[in-house]
Amino acid sequence: MGLELKKCVLCDGEIEGKIIDWTVEIDGNSYVIPDVPVMECRECGEKYLNPEASRYIDHQLEEMRNGGPELEVRVREIRLAKHKTQEEVARAMGFSVSRLSEIEHNKKTPSVLLALRLARVLGCDVNELYRLRPHTKEGLRQQSSKGVKTSGER
Q1: Which of 77, 131, 142 lies closest to 104, judged by CA?
Q2: 54-90 burial, b for 16+ CB within 10 Å, e for fewer?
Q3: Where are the domains of the chain?
């Protein structure tokens, strides 16, 4: 039977459940783990993790240490090889050029359905648009050289 926390141990304030992005500092680099359930004090902001949330964070960090899985996005490369403009592809997909640009620059990941439609518009297989990068031994340190990383970042 687990112990249920009702008050903050630091200030005796009320705590509430939240889903947050949890930031971890390792060797001077910041890593963000998305969607972590926490209990947070309304007064002082102290955060408490249950064992399941702690395991989730550990799992996400382990994925990052192992270098993946991470998607290699080839949408722009294939669009250019097919001699199509962003405007043409965005219009055929029914969304803005800025959204297509976010997809091409790996800032947004489309749903599976949109990825399949995008492959059809570009006349290729969805596996050509997205590939899993191979795991690297350097993993966490190599990824951290790019700045703040998000576990599962796409």
Answers
A1: 77
A2: eebbeebbebbbebeebbebbbbebbeeeeeebeebb
A3: 15-68+137-150, 71-132
CATH 3.10.20.860 given to domain 15-68+137-150: yes
**pLDDT tens by residue, 75-128:** 999 999 999 999 999 999 999 999 999 999 888 888 889 999 999 999 999 999
pLDDT of residue 136: 39
Pair 78, 103: CB distance under 8 Å: no
Query: In whole angstroms, what is the distance from residue 87 CA to residue 83 CA?
Result: 12
DSSP 84-119: --HHHHHHHHTS-HHHHHHHHTTSS---HHHHHHHH
